[in-house]
Amino acid sequence: MALTPVWLALRQIEWPDFTECHAVNPGRFTLCNIRSGHLRLDFPRVAPLINLALELSGLGLRIFTNKAPRIRAGSTDTWAAFQSRLRRYAAATRDGRWDVALRALGCREAFNAWVGFTTGGPLQSGHSGKLAPMPHRDPLFTQSGVDKLHALLNQFVAVRAHSMALAAPLSAEDQCVQSMPDASPTKWHLAHTTWFFETLVLQSLVAGYQPFDSDYAYLFNSYYEALGPRHPRPQRGLLTRPALADIHAYRDHVDAAIGALARMEVAQNAVKLEAILSLLELGLHHEQQHQELLLTDVLHLFSCNPLLPAYRRSRLLTADLHPKQDVQWLRHPGGVVSIGHEGTGFAFDNETPRHQHLLTPFEIASQPVSCGDFLAFIEDGGYSDPQWWLSEGWAHVQTHSWHAPAYWRAPNDPRHPHETWQVFGLEGVQPLCFNAPVAHISFFEAAAYAAWAGARLPTEHEWEAAFGMPGLSGMQGNVWQWTRSSYEPYPGFRPRAGATREYNGKFMVGQQVLRGSSHATPVGHARASYRNFFPPAARWQFAGMRLARDIA
After folding, report:
1. DSSP for 1-56, written as a single string
2. Is residue 101 located within the same domain as residue 180?
3. What is the pLDDT of residues 501-526, one digit of tens each?
4. Among candidates 85, 79, 80, 76, which has minimal Cα distance to 104?
5. Does residue 384 sit within a domain?
């Protein structure tokens, strides 16, 4: 399992795309990326995670924050060959083929370049330069338990590093502001995900653990009634204290404590080890959810700024990124289908139990509705014609003056005048790409468009049954897709035990299910059975739609 955490941590910040890297000063460094430009990272915040990764690797190396880090390609490799090594290593580690993975690295030069930092000295004394998997350190561990614990700790390093990388382009001021009650400041996201690990893993399962700050339980609890009172959600933007530096210190403290679990006596207790594994895995997926929320909340925040600032470097949404494709209608025969998580790998409790569901034959569109398709609805007066709208949706159109998807800018919009339609996104204001999937629409807008188009939204059961059909595209990685299904428990649903029973079940009313994933969803987080959910009027998520229709 050697080196996996370092690779995962660097992979989250697009390490294979770095063309050059250099130190700016002993406390900070700049990573130069061919796609996103200069990204400034706070090295003292990254170093503890990399140190933890190196400790898990069993190589005994550390990075010292009093030295300016230096990143370079391997001296014995061309850049293309170096990238190829990394990709082979990543593929092998994902498959658990450690012998193949280590051969892909193979030599001292590749290791030094891949880690990406000079440590101020050579490899461990006596080290041959050939890397071997870390031996299990404690025979009291079960084989399956120790493997899963180390795998989760590897993932922990990567997920936590990714959160910090997402926050890196933001100023301290950016990270404190709350733009609406449904959104949360970046600083709060960073703290809340840390509170989750501290409260549900460390405080509940590690004897003698002392919280970093006892006041944080009130500030950063989200909605867990069983875990005590909490600060009101609409007032999270008023938390100018604790400062951002304090939140970073909080994360460092909890990261170190989680990283030490493998060496603790608690991990030798089979019952407690199973509880740790379950809650640690849930915490990782919980943080990944907040990583996407961090981006959607920042986008809404920046949309409220008259300057319409970009979160990251401008990237045109050209036809090359979204080539035009003709929509096809794909037939599904219906019948009794199995719905829900199959039982291998992680799933949230709302994806269970797997059960049978009867479908009538239907057709589903081969791709999501595009911006160009939705623009035709707008130009046909769709937002001014109540015949297409559900009653509550029409009330929102009138009350909130909806006339286009959120973040669209009409021609000659006074805030950013231009002769054609534009859209505001994480890259700032861009020309509207007609072939890109439409995003930032509510369920009401999706249902109205479907009625106007002479079709309907698929149910979540139809969407899942169709997943993997030949000819379907854009099911994941572009936009979440509204379904016609309300968010309800599956037959036989049972929530998780303990405080985490509040994670999903208590929200199963007044919400609509979305399926798929978006371009902001972390890699590896999506699956066919995933059930996202939001109120039907929500527009600030990367949510779009796909059409379905009945077969006469």
Report:
1. -TTHHHHHHHHTTTGGGEEEEEEEETTEEEEEETTTEEEEEEHHHHHHHHHHHHHH
2. no
3. 999 999 999 999 999 999 999 999 99
4. 85
5. yes
Q: Are 85 and 77 in contact (CB under 8 A)?
A: yes
> How far apart (Å, rounded) are the C-alpha atoms in residues 155 and 4?
9
Note whether 264 and 275 are same-domain residues: yes
Q: Is 210 exposed, middle or buried (0-12, 13-18, 19+ CB in 10 A)?
A: exposed
pLDDT value at residue 266: 64
Full DSSP string of 41-62: EEHHHHHHHHHHHHHHHTS---
Check which CATH number belongs to the domain holding 334 and give it. 3.90.1580.10
Cβ–Cβ < 8 Å for 282, 500: yes
pTM to 2 decimal places = 0.77
Q: Is residue 390 situated within a structural domain? A: yes
Which 3 state secondary structure label does DSSP give 261?
A: helix
pLDDT (0 to 100) of residue 76:
38
Supply the pLDDT for residue 513.
98
Q: Is 532 exposed, middle or buried (0-12, 13-18, 19+ CB in 10 A)?
A: buried
Q: Is residue 322 part of a domain?
A: no
Q: Are 3 and 57 in contact (CB under 8 A)?
A: yes
Strand order in the sheet with 548-550: 329-332, 362-365, 548-550
Find out whether 400 and 409 touch, Cβ atoms under 8 Å.
Answer: no
Secondary structure class of 312 (helix, strand, coil): coil
Number of domains in the chain: 3
Angle at CA 348, nearest 5°, toward 342 and 353? 45
> What burial class does residue 131 get, using C-beta atoms within 10 Å of its C-beta: 0-12 exposed, 13-18 middle, 19+ buried?
buried
| pLDDT tens per residue across span 525-550 | 999 999 999 999 999 999 999 999 99
60 with 108, same domain: the answer is: yes
Half-sphere exposure for 221 (CA within 13 Å, toward CB): 19
If asked whether residues 19 and 67 sit together in one domain, one would say yes
Q: What amino acid is encoded at 282 in this protein? A: L
Where in the sequence is the domain holding 261, given as residue range(s)?
136-309
Tokens of 152: 């989760």
- Total residue length of the chain: 552
Is 440 within the bounds of a domain? yes
Q: Are residues 192 and 49 in the same domain?
A: no
**Do the bridges between strand 355-359 and strand 362-365 make them parallel or antiparallel, or are there none, so unpaired?**
unpaired
Q: Is the peptide bond before 368 cis (omega within 30 degrees of 0)?
A: no
Task: Mark the ranges of the chain whose per-residue pLDDT is less than 70.
Answer: 1-144, 265-267, 314-322
